Amino acid sequence: MVSTSGMIIIVIKMLEIGVFFLGFLCSECSAAQPIPDQKDIFATEPSFDVPVVNITVVEGKTAILPCSVEHLGSHKVVWTDQWSTLLTFEIQRIIDDDRISVERPYTKDWNLLIHEVRYSDRGRYTCQINTDPIKTKNVVLYVLVPPRIIDEASTRDIVAREGETVTLVCNVTGVPTPTVHWYRRPLGQSLGVKERVGMNGEILIIYNVSRYCDGIYECMAFNDVSPAVNREIPVEVEFAPEIELPNKRIGQEPGRETMLECIITAFPQALSVWKRHGKEIKDTHKHRLEVYNEGDHRITLSLRIMDITAADYGNYTCYASNKLGNDIENMYMYDHKKTLRTTTPYPMTTPRRVTTGDYRYISGHNNGGTVIETQGPNPSGAAGNDKDTILADSPWSSGITCTGSLIVICEGPMQGRSMENHAVKTIEYASLPVLLCCAIILNRLTS
């Protein structure tokens, strides 16, 4: 039987063995993991020194995406794009795109530069530090694109017939979406003279076009990214001839000479002649023909008759024609010595209406005349002024009559318009001599 003192000795021996093995194990552990240096114990984790920002740049410029790191130490910095493609490793470019580089104006800066930025470069870019876990900072790049007009998808020169519908297209691109304004400059006017027409949109529609709506139409696109762009679209309207005679009758003595004048408005100008007894009058020693271009598709055809004899008195016919039609007016020449008084020439022009086809009905309004409509994907507001009569209620496509500045071009020289409760009324103007005669007669009757 073991005594109590013997048991105590055995326990002490076992404790000594345990302490030995524990010391051995601890020494092995210390050998495998050396005690860190004092500098490493107090080292600071890397951190980003710049807050999260978004960068906006115009296409073609250089984008600088900032990344500033404090206490980088031995860690590495890389840039990736939104598809996790590795772009750079420290200052080395990894991707095969020489537009990309790393800029380090200061030691802690690791800015990503993208030269000649394209619209496809837009998106999220990430600056990363290879800590555990990895630290990241996102920078979103927005790319603005100046407005551009796509020539192949836009309208070129237009030649239309009176009464037809004319559609002008100005196809534009840009970021943000450009706003398109329309202007018109009458043919032959200086570059600085133009007027606003229609509403905002890429498509301008002119219903029931008339000769007074021709001119140079200009679309201007802008989106607050310089420069704005414009495109000019010439519009010519063909119409049948119309003849005006300054005098219906003219008197002259035998042996003298006189001149007959005929004003012809037409586009295109084709055949314009003076006739006598159904036969065309040629340029001879007896008759001298001259043509004067008055502009606005108007010419004056004059016939000078030399050494007048009794055989020269009678009717003379001015005749004009083109592919759209013809017109004819007669003038009478007489020997005023045989009359009691000389007929004083005065304008005999009768107010005439220009036939431009059927009226166009829009949104239940029954307003005649030329109608301009503008269409676009996102019109941002009305163009024009309070005089514009809006015929369509849709926010996406609206029609306006040619009022305001267009009142002049969409009515003939003998017509005008007045606006009352958004209804267009045609007013015919009588010639001045007729009004004066009426005033004189009325005055005598009342006196």
Largest sheet: 8 strands, mixed
Number of helices: 3
Ends apart, CA distance between termini:
170 Å
CATH superfamily of the domain at 47-144: Immunoglobulins
Protein name: Lachesin
InterPro entries: Ig-like_dom, Ig-like_dom_sf, Ig-like_fold, Ig_I-set, Ig_sub, Ig_sub2, Neural/epithelial_adhesion
Keywords: Disulfide bond, Immunoglobulin domain, Repeat, Signal
Organism: Mizuhopecten yessoensis
Notable characteristics:
immunoglobulin domain, repeat, disordered N terminus, Ig_I-set, mainly beta, 11% helix, signal, seven-stranded mixed beta sheet, Immunoglobulin-like, Ig-like_fold
Fold and architecture overview:
With 447 residues, the protein is mainly beta. Among the domains are: 47-144, Sandwich (Immunoglobulin-like), CATH 2.60.40; 150-239, Immunoglobulin-like, CATH 2.60.40.10; 245-341, Immunoglobulins (Immunoglobulin-like, Sandwich). It contains 3 helices and 31 strands. It has helices at 4-32, 38-41, 432-446; strands at 47-48, 54-58, 63-65, 69-70, 77-80, 86-89, 92-93, 100-103, 111-114, 123-129, 135-149, 158-161, 166-169, 172-175, 179-185, 195-197, 203-207, 215-222, 229-244, 249-251, 258-267, 271-276, 279-280, 287-295, 298-305, 314-322, 325-334, 371-375, 397-401, 415-420, 423-428. The strands form 7 sheets. Strands 12, 15, 16, 18, 19, 21, 24 and 25 form an 8-stranded mixed beta sheet that branches. Strands 2, 5, 6, 7, 10, 11 and 14 form a 7-stranded mixed beta sheet that branches. Strand 8 and strand 9 form a beta hairpin. It is rod-shaped. It starts with a helix and ends with a helix.
